[in-house]
Amino acid sequence: MLQRTIKLAGEWSRMLLGIAALMVLAGCASTLSARVTTFQQWPADSQGAHYRIVPPSGDTLEVQAFSDMIRAAIGRTGLVEAQGEQKPRFDVHFEYGATVSQEWVQRFHDPYFDNFGPWGWGGYYGGFRGWGGGIYYTPTVVNVPVQVSKNTLTVIIRDNQRQGAQVYKSTAVSTAGSLVEVMPYLAQAVFDGFPGNNGQVRNITYELQ
Question: Structure pTM?
Fold first, then answer.
């Protein structure tokens, strides 16, 4: 009877984990969140002014692709890209990167599914309690390490009419997916609500296409 109860408890715990995993995957598959920090002293006479994108050093295919994503998102600023010999008023610089770190998350410890678990057989401490004349198992919550990616895009706009002074700086950070996957959304995020308030920090959520 005791072994059967432990087995049923293990199945119940695994079912909860499965449901939680599906909910996480569903959330990740439908939306993407970015934390955006913006500083600006945007000039009032900039509507229709010309800009040029100044990519990071190294004219790689990756840099070209990310430049195109920023170019597609910058239209909401009212700026126009300089062509040919046109002298731009604004230089648009950008930096990007991805880091991986380890964080700890909580999950249910399943003594049946985890076999002997990290503490050996019997190391769990959920316990059995009376309930309606029967017994049930209370799963234990344990901390487990997970790898978390942090994708970052920073866009800086300098005004050549003010000796190259910074007039806009926005950084978007997301922990979803890979850098290549999220870059189109980060490019949108750094210009979301442009120019925004100076020193503003916001969380922005996008529906994934």
Answer: 0.68
